Amino acid sequence: MEKPVMGIAEALADVPDGATVLVGGFGGAGSPIELVHALIDQGARDLTVVNNNAGNGDVGLAALIRERRVRKMICSFPRSANPKAFTELYLKGEIELEVVPQGTLAERIRAGGAGIPAFYTPASVGTPLAEGKEVRTFDGRDYVMEHWIRADYALVKAETADRAGNLLYNMSARNFGPVMCMAAQTTVVQVRNVVEPGAIDPEAVVTPGIFVDRIVQVADPAQEELLFAEGAVYP
Amino acid sequence: MSTETVTRLSRAQMAWRAAQDIADGTYANLGIGIPEQVAQFVPEGRQVTYHTENGVLGFGERPPQGEEDYDLVNAGKKPVTLLPGASFFHHADSFAMIRGGHIDVAILGAFQVAPNGDLANWRAGDDAVPAVGGAMDLVVGAKSVWVITSHVTRTGEHKLIERCTYPLTGVGVVSRIFTDVAVIHVQDGRFVLKEMVPGMTVERLQEMTGAPLATEGKIGTLCPPAVG
């Protein structure tokens, strides 16, 4: 099935206030910065955002947070070279934080995409992050129950899409992309290249097109780390 | 306590010492900070494959200046290069490697370590922003968990202590500790002193350690080459 290749504003036009949004990327690698900037322009508020981090400097996710559009962050590591947007609001009690071990975060998203409402992991057993959660013993070892994460939207950066939505990524920019594509009602991917079906070897497909709903072509995407180094500010 | 007659290891020397214990054929995950430097010091002839939890197996050195690609980074978000045989994978697969017991050793930093193997390395107080990253997954998933840390804090407080007072990262997980003055194994609920720097005495090291130090046989000399 062919997936629509849309303009960036059109692709995010229906994001409502209060939406849960998965945002791909590990630091700047795989950060869909053009999509996040388009979400800032679009205006949706009161968002719950899931990302490994909580933004850096004054662009991308940090700018979305600074504009007070995020009610809650779910992440593993809300630190970076300059996490001031998140840190300021957090220390004032003006943004919620759910801190999740990184592997648990990835697996909760994967489980959401795979239709598994909860699972047991050994990570965090005996630590404050397991408090209040069910612990069960399997084969003599304790595991904590964690719930899936499912979202309204996923914003993911990939390298190449064919019109069937099959995706290739660029090196470690892949990170959360494949699991986030699976776990949202509407998955919007920004890609450098859009090619015809058949142009990607089926053996090489990383994310099958069934997990992709909308394609936005950003032929020359910004790299968050480089924008940060320049001291860029958005908007 | 006075330690002026003792030479402490540099950060690079601590990394060098930990690297000597990595066996041939190891899949290793190196934490942010001093553990990252371990990759530079693996002894000649040993094959070690490095895993970084953001989704790369088989990465190599930092690229030359001007050739950095921020789509190819390690867990500390620093640019790396690829070695022949490298692979990319998504986060859920990466943590399947960790949690599933496929990583042989994880080397991390520490705020506190206790003789029961408990590790605290993610949150020092209630006022800071909590940030755990992949540490909780690594300590329960890797077959061995080693720590590289200064033996005491900058203000001289114990980091190797009877019971961790900071929030735990993992329970009973650490098996070796490489400090700037000693190598200590965590065995059967005890700190077992294996090596210490020249000029150090067991008595003085005990003062620097917040839990009893056991000894078994000869204590080796911790004397790495001048590396860095």
TrEMBL record, chain A:
Keyword Transferase: yes
GO molecular function: CoA-transferase activity
Record's protein name: 3-oxoacid CoA-transferase subunit A
Key word Transcription regulation present: no
Keyword line: Transferase
Pfam families reported for this sequence: CoA_trans
Similarity section: Belongs to the 3-oxoacid CoA-transferase subunit A family.
Highest taxon listed in the record's lineage: Bacteria
Organism: Futiania mangrovi
TrEMBL record, chain B:
Superkingdom, taxonomy of origin: Bacteria
Glycoprotein as UniProt keyword: no
GO molecular function: CoA-transferase activity
Keyword entries, A-Z: Transferase
InterPro entries (UniProt xref): 3-oxoacid_CoA-transf_B (IPR012791), CoA_trans_fam_I (IPR004165), NagB/RpiA_transferase-like (IPR037171)
Key word Transferase present: yes
Family: Belongs to the 3-oxoacid CoA-transferase subunit B family.
Protein name: 3-oxoacid CoA-transferase subunit B
